[in-house]
Structure formats: structure tokens, C-alpha cells
Automatic annotation (TrEMBL):
EC number of this enzyme: 3.6.4.12
The protein, known as: RuvB-like helicase
One Pfam family cited in the UniProt record for this chain: TIP49_C
Listed InterPro entries: AAA+_ATPase (IPR003593), P-loop_NTPase (IPR027417), RuvB-like (IPR027238), RuvB-like_C (IPR041048), RuvBL1/2_DNA/RNA_bd_dom (IPR042487), TIP49_P-loop (IPR010339)
Organism the protein comes from: Coptotermes formosanus
Compartments reported by the entry: Nucleus
Cell division keyword on record: yes
Keyword Phosphoprotein in annotation: no
One CC-aspect GO term: nucleus
Similarity comment: family membership: Belongs to the RuvB family.
Length: 456
């Protein structure tokens, strides 16, 4: 298993609804500040989340789970994302929604296991022997083709590398010449070649050539220090799912059939349990040798009531396994039927034996003042100017309807203000937009009043 061939499978996300959240907003003593890091109110929930973050950082919480429970629009997802921000980019954070498990291509339990392994990181420290320097010469030595014909083949490559300390000439294998061509290496580039794998990495153009052109899209790097041949410690962060995918994919050659196979990829391939066990063995061996370190990350399952009884049972097993992440659930349901059963009613739609394992963090509805603070934050994030009177009115609408509806009125109101020749949202703009768009409660009221006019 070559670590350098492992590609990241992390989901790239742009969550605009929570882009203003920068952390949990706690002081040095772990107490929540009323408004900080993009979060407003929910002091008790934020302090509890702060303790969870400390436990994750001290690696005391692997294989445990907690539940964020509260009415819709009370900041459950916001707190989970704030936890991710607090942990930093080095700790894997994998968000998913309960309904994601119902895929037509792969089994429910497979989706869960895949996300479980996405949330477990592996930090690999490798000491590599590398040849590093600025390319002073690059000469392919050609010989007659042994297969006959007119073409010539490259027998070896002579490459000269220069550092601040000295120069060295290397004789390289023709396969490395192909890598050099792929990286578009030419004289004057700074490269490094790994001694054991022969992998070539172009780092940029040497800064001695910086004045060569007036305009250039090149990145200039300084001449490497030390000897050409040196030992370098490389730290790479991968997740267990990255390792699974890298090893599950058949390593195709350069022939036309394998190229076609890669183009016409079938449906999502299921990774077998046997393969995972083999990877776990390799990972455990790396950990025992001190080459790698396990980094338990966070798996965030939103709308957890959407899971059914089979997936809940599978979660038990997954949480008890030796290599398990920290799981954070979120739900806005009260007492409801567990999905996949006929008549078993349980709090939050989660079986009691799983609830028994969870630390439950409660979120409470926002007050009008807090709603106004959140709306002010959202307006700043979206680059919208709003006057105090309009903000009070939006806060009133949020209290009467929901916070989400009030936030959604911001952008249409800004456009209306622009049409009316103003750069700041006024009370009239909010009134105008409020008459055009209905909230969920008003819509439900109209439906019940005119139910005979709608199809059933």
C-alpha cells in the first residue's frame, strides 16, 4: 500500500447558511460569551459542546456519542459546525444527513460505515530519502530499440541537481524520465525525487530566474539548502476511507482496456469487510511501529430520526469497534415512532438502548433580542445594510413565525430597497416583502381555510 498514491475523498462543502460561524465563542474559563465567534445565546449548549471539544482533543471520547436536541431553528447544526471549527482542519469532520443512508446503489449499513471511516484520520510520519535541487542539466540518453524498427528508446537519463551546498549528477531509470515529462520539468526548475519510490515533484522555478520575464504565471522558490541527497520527514494526513478507496480500486495499467474501464466507471463500488479488516491490520501495525498516529474525528449525523431500526442497531456495533470516531447526532423531533417499526414510540425517534449511551445537549428557542443579534450578523455576512427599525420588525416577524423565515427575508428586502433607490433596508421594504412571501404557519392556515379547493 503506497501512501503517496492515496487521494483524499473529503466532501468539499460550501455551507452558506452557517458561513458566519467561526467557533464556539468561549472564554478561557470555558464559559460562553453572549455573542462571540458568530454564535448568539445557547450558552449552556455551547459550554457543553466546549467540554466535548476538550474531550476530543485529549482523545478521551473515541467511540462515544452525543445528541443535540431542540426545536427547529435553534442552532443545532450551527453548534456542530462550531465544534468542527474549534477542532481545526487537522481533525476530520464528516457531516451527513440521516436520509443519506437510503441509497439505491449501496446498502444502508455501507453508507454509515463509509462515513464512519471518513471521520477517522491517520497521521503518517515518514522519513524519506530525497534528492532535491535546481535542475542544471537534463539529458535523455537514447539507444537503438531492442524490438527493432526505426524508433529509439531512452536507456537512462542524466540529471544534474544543484543546491546551496553543492551539485550532484544522477543517472536515472527511464520510468523516472516519464515522470519528469509529466511534471513538465525543465532546466532551472526546483524538484525533488524520492529515492525509494522514484516519485518526482516539481516545486516551482528557481528564484534566480525571477527576472527572466516581465510577466509570468510561475511560482518562484528559493534554491534548496543543504546537500542534494538528504533525509526529509514527510507528514501526511489521510482518512481510513481514503485508504479503503485507494485499495479497493483495481490498479489499471496503461493498456486500452483498463483505460476504458476507468472511464466507464460502474456504480459506486462497495468496499468489502474483508478489505477493511486487512487495512485495519496494516494501520495497527503502523501505529505499533510509531509510523502513524490515529486521529479520531467527528461524524455529524443531522436529522438522526430519519435512520431506521436496522441502522440504529448497526450504530451500536460501529460505536463499540476499536477504531471509532466521536459521533454527534442532531434531531428536532419530540416523541415519535422509530422508523422501520410499526408502533414503537420513543423520544426523538431513537431507540432507548441507544439513547442510554448518549450525552444529550439541549438547545432552546431564541428570544427576540437574540434573533435580532443573529439577523444583524447575517446581514453583515451577506454585505447587507439594515436600519434599526427594520431590524426590530424582522425580530418581531421571527418571534411570530420562525428565525429561518426572518433570515430568508433579508436578501429579497435588500433587492426591494435597491429597486426603491435605497442602499439601506427600511421598514417599508420588510413590509412589502412580507406581503409577497408566506411563512409556513400562514400557508398552513390558508390551506385549512380553503381545503375544499385543493386536491387530496
Amino acid at each position: 500500500m503506497k501512501i503517496e498514491e492515496v487521494k483524499s475523498t473529503a466532501k468539499i462543502q460550501r455551507i452558506s447558511a452557517h458561513s458566519h460561524i467561526k467557533g464556539l465563542g468561549l472564554d478561557d474559563g470555558g464559559s460562553a460569551m453572549q455573542t462571540a465567534a458568530g454564535l448568539v445565546g445557547q450558552e449552556a449548549a455551547r459550554e457543553a459542546a466546549g467540554i466535548v471539544v476538550d474531550m476530543i482533543k485529549s482523545k478521551k471520547m473515541a467511540g462515544r456519542a452525543c445528541l443535540l436536541a431542540g426545536p427547529p431553528g435553534t442552532g443545532k447544526t450551527a453548534i456542530a459546525l462550531a465544534i468542527a471549527q474549534e477542532l481545526g482542519s487537522k481533525v476530520p469532520f464528516c457531516p451527513m444527513v440521516g436520509s443519506e443512508v437510503f441509497s439505491s446503489e449501496i446498502k444502508k449499513t455501507e453508507v454509515l460505515m463509509e462515513n464512519f471511516r471518513r471521520a477517522i484520520g491517520l497521521r503518517i510520519k515518514e522519513t524519506k530519502e530525497v534528492y532535491e535541487g535546481e535542475v542544471t542539466e537534463l539529458t535523455p540518453v537514447e539507444t537503438e530499440n531492442p524490438m527493432g524498427g526505426y524508433g529509439k528508446t531512452v536507456s537512462h537519463v542524466i540529471i544534474g541537481l544543484k543546491t546551496a551546498k553543492g551539485t550532484k549528477q544522477l543517472k536515472l531509470d527511464p520510468s523516472i524520465y516519464e515522470s519528469l515529462q509529466k511534471e513538465k520539468v525543465e532546466t532551472g526548475d526546483v524538484i525533488y525525487i524520492e529515492a525509494n519510490s522514484g516519485a518526482v515533484k516539481r516545486q516551482g522555478r528557481s528564484d534566480t530566474f525571477a527576472t527572466e520575464f516581465d510577466l509570468e504565471a510561475e511560482e518562484y522558490v528559493p534554491l534548496p539548502k543543504g546537500d542534494v541527497h538528504k533525509k526529509k520527514e514527510v507528514i501526511q494526513d489521510v482518512t481510513l476511507h481514503d485508504l479503503d478507496v485507494a485499495n479497493a480500486r483495481p490498479q489499471g495499467g496503461q493498456d486500452i482496456l483498463s483505460m476504458m474501464g476507468q472511464l466507464m466507471k460502474p456504480k459506486k463500488t462497495e468496499i468489502t469487510d474483508k478489505l477493511r479488516k486487512e487495512i485495519n491490520k496494516v494501520v495497527n501495525k503502523y501505529i505499533d511501529q510509531g509510523i502513524a498516529e490515529l486521529v479520531p474525528g467527528v461524524l455529524f449525523i443531522d436529522e438522526v430520526h430519519m435512520l431506521d431500526i436496522e441502522t440504529f442497531t448497526y450504530l451500536h456495533r460501529a460505536l463499540e469497534s476499536a477504531i471509532a470516531p466521536i459521533v454527534i447526532f442532531a434531531t428536532n423531533r419530540g416523541r415519535c415512532v422509530i422508523r422501520g417499526t410499526e408502533d414503537i414510540i420513543s423520544p426523538h425517534g431513537i431507540p432507548l438502548d441507544l439513547l442510554d449511551r448518549l450525552l444529550i445537549i439541549r438547545t432552546l428557542p431564541y428570544s427576540r433580542v437574540e434573533m435580532e443579534q443573529i439577523l444583524r450578523l447575517r446581514a453583515q455576512t451577506e454585505g447587507i445594510q439594515i436600519d434599526e427599525e427594520a431590524l426590530h420588525m424582522l425580530g418581531e416577524i421571527g418571534t411570530r413565525t420562525t428565525l429561518r423565515y426572518a433570515v430568508q427575508l433579508l436578501t429579497p428586502s435588500a433587492l426591494t430597497a435597491k429597486v426603491n433607490g435605497r442602499s439601506v433596508i427600511a421598514k417599508d421594504d420588510i413590509q412589502e416583502v412580507g406581503e409577497l412571501f408566506l411563512d409556513a404557519k400562514s400557508s398552513a392556515k390558508i390551506l385549512s381555510q380553503h381545503k375544499d379547493k385543493y386536491m387530496k
